[in-house]
Specification:
Helices cover 28% and strands 27% of the residues. The radius of gyration is 19 Å and the shape is globular.
């Protein structure tokens, strides 16, 4: 029988968001008012000098110092900011909360940082969680990697507008592109490092499968693409896997898929659900 003390800890899930950009705002919108939810946004962590935003829940506090996490009694710290935020907040998050959920997966291309965060999680008895983001879920690939994997290829196809502000602009005039153009083909580590806002998801498929240096990536700018399309092919002892997901771009940030926020919300809701699928 579960004790009443343990049951009581499940009544509310206290979370702190690191970041206040498009993904953070969409997550807050999807979660709805904390007064009617079992999930309570207790704080938003932003750089010093950032002004409070109108969409922040009234009861949410603003913090800029990672040491302040220790005062929040948060269950989960959810990063939705940047690679730099992962390194800045990670250690303190793993020390203060039971889970640190990372959205900016490209931060983990830094082997030293990834190792440091894993060591911190072991030391503090917490967990470092890599959110599946735009991919929704990769449990099949994770399971398949229990046996030998021979090949994993991750292709990302987006409209040229989504590649603006990236190294793709040095390859072609994205505004006048008439047909699909492969703007990158190579390893996952370099893809995520060079295109962090667009190819963040290849880190997730890599760490679920063959790793950053053996996973192959293809990035495509396609003027006919109306959605952000991820295709993953895996071959191994388990058999073959072909996964394709066509995501609607987030209206406020076409580089990011709506599924990114949806999967984060589902991850949080699963912490409080009696049935988890």
């Amino acid at each position: 029988m579960v004790s009443e003390d343990i049951k009581s800890t499940r009544n509310r899930l206290r979370i702190c968001l690191v970041g206040s950009g498009a993904i953070a705002r969409r997550v807050v919108e999807l979660l709805g008012p904390s007064s009617t939810s079992s999930i309570e946004l207790v704080a938003i962590a932003v750089p010093p000098g950032v002004k409070r935003q109108s969409w922040w829940p009234e009861e949410t506090v603003q913090i800029s110092d990672p040491n302040a996490l220790a005062t929040l009694d948060a269950d989960i710290v959810l990063e939705v900011a940047s690679r730099e935020a992962v390194s800045q907040w990670g250690f303190h998050a793993l020390k203060a909360a039971r889970k640190f959920v990372i959205c900016s997966a490209s931060a983990l291309t830094d082997d030293h940082l990834r190792s440091s965060l894993e060591n911190a999680a072991r030391s503090f008895g917490s967990q470092l969680i890599l959110a599946h983001g735009a991919l929704g879920g990769l449990h099949a690939l994770s399971a398949a990697s229990t046996l030998a994997l021979h090949e994993v290829v991750h292709s990302i196809r987006k409209h040229p507008d989504a590649w603006k502000g990236t190294p793709a602009e040095a390859i072609a005039d994205l505004s006048s592109l008439k047909e699909a153009l492969t703007i990158y083909e190579g390893g996952a580590r370099d893809a995520a490092s060079s295109f962090p806002a667009n190819a963040n998801a290849v880190v997730i498929s890599s760490l679920a499968g063959l790793g950053l240096d053996r996973t192959r990536v293809q990035l495509v700018a396609d003027p006919s693409a109306r959605r952000n399309i991820h295709s993953i092919r895996a071959i191994g002892v388990f058999g073959n896997l072909d996964l394709t997901i066509e995501n609607e771009p987030m209206q406020t940030n076409p580089k990011t898929s709506e599924m990114t926020a949806l999967s984060l919300v589902r991850l949080l809701e699963s912490e409080m659900s009696s049935l988890v699928v």
